[in-house]
Amino acid sequence: MLTPHGDPLGRIGDPDIGGQCVYVRELSTHLAKAGHDVRIYTRDRSEGKPTTEEYAPGATVIRVPCGPDGFIAKEDLLPYLPEFTHHVRAELDGTEILHSHYWDGGFVAGALREGHIWFHTTHSIGKLKQTALPDTAQYRYEDRIQIETDIYGKCTRVVALTETERTQIHELYGVPRDQIVVIPPGVNTATFVPRSDKRTLRRELQLPEDAAIVLSLGRLDERKGFDLYLDAAGRVLQEVDPGSVTFVLSAGDGSPQETAERRKLEEIVEAHSMSTDLIWLPVLPEEKLPDYYAAADVFVLPSRYEPFGIVMLEAMASGIPVIATMAGGPATVIEPGKTGLLVDPTNIESLSNAILTMTRFPKKRYAYGRSARAYVECRYSWEAIAERHFLAYEEARKEGGRDAR
Q: In which domain, by residue range, is 130 found?
C-alpha cells in the first residue's frame, strides 16, 4: 500500500488525515486477517512515531523520509515524492502487488511499477475538483491532473468506489471501462452498531436527552460543506420549537491551518444566533465515534463533492438515517425514501427541509435507520470488501498484469 500523505494510524481529523486513512487501514487489516502480508508505506512526519509499526498481525506501517519534518499539505508534496520513491524502491523485491492511493501514491507507484501488478484507488478525481473551483484557481490542479492521466495510462487496474466514479474516470480520462474495477469501501459492522439506550448514552455524552440530535463530522475543510450545514441549521431552528433540535458538529483540532475556515464558521453561528443549539466538538477520538453516531437521530454529509463518504457507512451501520450530498458517491449508496435522503447541499432550503423532515417524523427516521443498517450489513462489511480486492489482485496476476503499459 502506497499512501504518502495519509498515515493510516494518524489521528482522524488532523490535517489530511481522514476517510482515506481509515480505508487503507481497514482494507490492510482485513487482507492481513485473511492471511496476506501487507506493508503500508507512508510519509514520516517526524512526530515521534516508530519507523516500523505492526499494528495488526501481518499488517505493518512503514514510515519513510519525505521532505522536511512536520506537516506538509498533500497539495505541496510533489517535490518530495522522489525521495519517498527512493526509500520504498530499496525495500521491494519485485514480487509485490502495488496498491497506490490518491495521486501522490500513484506518482510513487508509477516510478516503481516495472515488474509489478499495480492497482490504483483514486479516492477523488482531480478534474471534478478542478471544475468546482473558481476560474482563477483552476490552475492549481493542472499538475495533479497530468499525474492522474499518467497513472491511468500505466496502472494494471483502477479501483473505483462506485459505478458513478467508474463512469467519470472513463469519460474524463479516457480509461477503458474494463480496466476499472468497482469495489466500494467497507465499514466495521461490529464497531458501529445501533443502541437501544439512547437516553443513557446521551447522558454520558452530555447531550440533550429529549431533543432530536443532528450530527455532522469530518475535517475542517471548505470542501466538507460545514458552512452549508450551519446555514441549514440556522433555518431549521427558525422553524422548530426551542430546544427540540440540537445540532452537533465534530470538526477541527485548533491547528493554524484551520484558522480561516473556523473563523468563517464561527461567523455563521453568530449570524444565526444558534450557539445554544449547537454543540461544536473537536475531532472525536475514534473510540468515541460509535457512541456519538448511536446517540444521534440523523447524520448529515453536506460535502460539496464527496467521492464516497465512509462516515456515511458508519452512520448507516449505527442505525441512523443519512442526509447526504447527491454530488458523488452517496448517490450510489443512499436509497432516497428508504435509507435516507439525497440533496444538493448548496441549496440551503433543500438541505434544511430534509433535516426538518427527519427531525419531525421519528417513526420515519427509525424505519430509515433500520433499513440503512440492514443494507450496510449485507453489502459493506470489510471482510467482504477485502475478499473482493484479493480476487481482483489474483485475476490481474493470472492475466499477467499490464506491465507493458
A: 19-186+382-399
